[in-house]
Amino acid sequence: MSLRRTAAALAASTVLCAVAAPVAAADESPSAQAPAQRDLPSGLYGKDDPQYDGVWRQSTALLAQDAVGVKPASKAVAWLTGQQCEDGSFASYRPDPTEACTAETVADVNATAAAVQALAALGGHGERVERAVEWLRLVQNDDGGWGFNPGSPSDANSVSVVIGALDAAGEDPAKTLSAKGEKSPYDSLLGFQLGCDAEKDERGAFAYQPDEKGRLAANDDATAAAVLAARGEGLATGPGGEEGGNSGGEDRGAAKALECGEDDGGDGGRTPAEAAEAGAAYLTRVLEAGGGHLKSAMPGAEEQPDYGNTADAVIALAAGGHRDAAAKSLNWLEKNLGSWDKATTGPAALGQLVLAARAAGGDPADFGGVNLVERLNATGPAPVSVPSGADGGEDGEDDGSRNAAEDGDGGGSPAMWSLIGAGLAAGAGVGFLLSNRRRRAQ
Question: Number of folded domains in the chain?
């Protein structure tokens, strides 16, 4: 699902413009310097400031490498495990993981869920995965969902990435009930879907969150994330879904659009599978109207392609067996790869593309003439091994492991994260942060 384009960018378009400068001026200490101004950890993927997307992009990179058989460097895995707090949660980035997490450490639901997916895929981290899942259960909202940070209102993107984490950890999202409301994540997720009372061309879409009056507005980013999650799948889903049941290449046909009669109201009592189909039908319509891609929802950029969310839509459609529709957008991504600057050096963007190509039956090692696996590997420490044909060079070797602290935490800026959270809520979901951090790594 797309935590991208970045949270910082979204927040800046809402509330940060007015208050970011005073916040920055209030803390001029060395510890308050942006991570990009200091030496970045050798195990971290990417060279950009990791303050808002460190754990997300690391998780996406590791997940994509594992999906194509690359064994990542031990220091890269150690960096991620070292970011985990004692209670099982992850912040978006902790500059000094040797310092214990405190009440000032801002836990990030999306980063935690992404880390669960990566660590579960890599294997050998059962205790860490279990602690993270237990923390996610602890902060589950009464409606069955989750928000960006603990205690914030549920949103479709956060619920979606957590569903993927539960699936990766071997948990059943349908049985993961909230303590008070006894609602499941699916109860929360389906509450964001536009039903028969919506405009015809928006039916089946998902909103990021309802507005202050409870109204839902179609959001392509949230829809791509929710369609995948409604099938109980995570980011590393294979062709035809987790079981790979459609890996032979057969297309299951067009997604089934929401059926509405004259007297139908809003929800229609849909199952998660039916909701996924309706959402996939909406995505297919929007992609076709856009010439194969989704359009940006960022203010002032509405007519520009949204590469990250298009990749997410490819994964979602492929997971449902709608391979022809997924292939059309995957082809568009191949032809326009050179226009996505983050596809050159951004680990989250490259990871997205690797996962999209894999899900839709493409070749990540020959994506429009570009070896995405090789590019992804180059953004971090040399992998331990690379399958033959997956990289342009010889198998890499681990260039040393870092004895990262197993737990603990350091900084983070609670004030800044509160502002970003407010911006995300006010923006009503300009993207998953799957696009943001994950994503919003376009």
Answer: 1
